[in-house]
Fold:
Amino acid sequence: MMGSTLVNGIFAFRRVVSIGMESSVAIPEGHQYQFGSVSPLSSQVPMSPVRRCLLIWFAAMSVVHAATPGDQLHALFEREWDRTMRESPTWASSLGDRRFNREWPDLSLEAIAQSHELDQAVLEDLHQIDFDQLSPEDKINFRLFERKYQQQVEGYEFGWHLVPLNQRGGIQDEGSTADSLRFETVQDYEDWIARMRAFPIYMDQT
Structure:
């Protein structure tokens, strides 16, 4: 529902832009537009940039309705899932998301610090959502999501990101990554070769 509404809003926006760029404001014969009044002179005058922008804005807002708290929550979930895939490319590959098949996780201190800042921003965005207006199911989703990110933010201060491997997993297990991948096309093999060539950087970061 929300997706189709946004698509309709985009088409309406483009239509109004086209109208605003190509047309003039029609007024009675023998008059000209003077900010709310008409006076004799001409039958048409070009639409001013300010008026055009206002027309575009109001037309778009009339079509794209405000998202509900539930819509906002699920949009945040989708955004963060996509970030998780970008930051965990080997996991993404194992799930069948092949967008990052040439990459390893970025374990540089700069990347980890940036991810921490994004986690903090996620909590801020989450708390902008009206919790009381959520459905019972989404209230549970909200709290679970909130707890996960709170733990990540709080855990950063203890420096666990400086322990990139342990007896349960780490770079020593990356040899098994290929076991979860598809090798059916030329692109699959090219992606794997590119990933292997990038392995020394991943090792140095570890």
Notes: Strands lie at 24-26, 32-33, 38-39, 44-46. The mean pLDDT is 79.
